[in-house]
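dude i think i finally got it to work??
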Amino acid sequence: MNYDARFKEDSKWGYRVGFAFGYSKANYFFAAGTSTRVYSIPLEVNYLLGKGKNRLEMGLGVNTGYYNDHIAVAEHFKFEAEQWRIAYKNISENNISSFAYLNIGYRYTHKRGFQFRIGITPACMITNNRYCGREALLGLYISFGKAF
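look at this
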């Protein structure tokens, strides 16, 4: 959920602040039992280019999140003379991480208030206090909302 507003009425410059929740669970063989919950706060400054109901939006922001990770780790140990076994150990970690991002997209705002947004979000890690397979990523976004 996000709140997006202009700094002044009819200004092209604005800001966005929000609260987000995410959940993911791995279902492939090597990561069975791995899941992540995240609660985050995105903060962004944005600029709207164009006039009327069709605009190009560009934003720069930071997203800080509280991550609750549940990880299944495989450990190898010697069982008998020449036999090795694998045991899985479940680890739970709580961490705070941040990433910086850009938003580049299309924003449609109908005069009755319906708003639609679609675009791309390149991002890179600022603080990585947890296991993350990527330092940079490219995401897509789509948004429906009410302008007032």
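The radius of gyration is 21 Å.
im so relieved honestly
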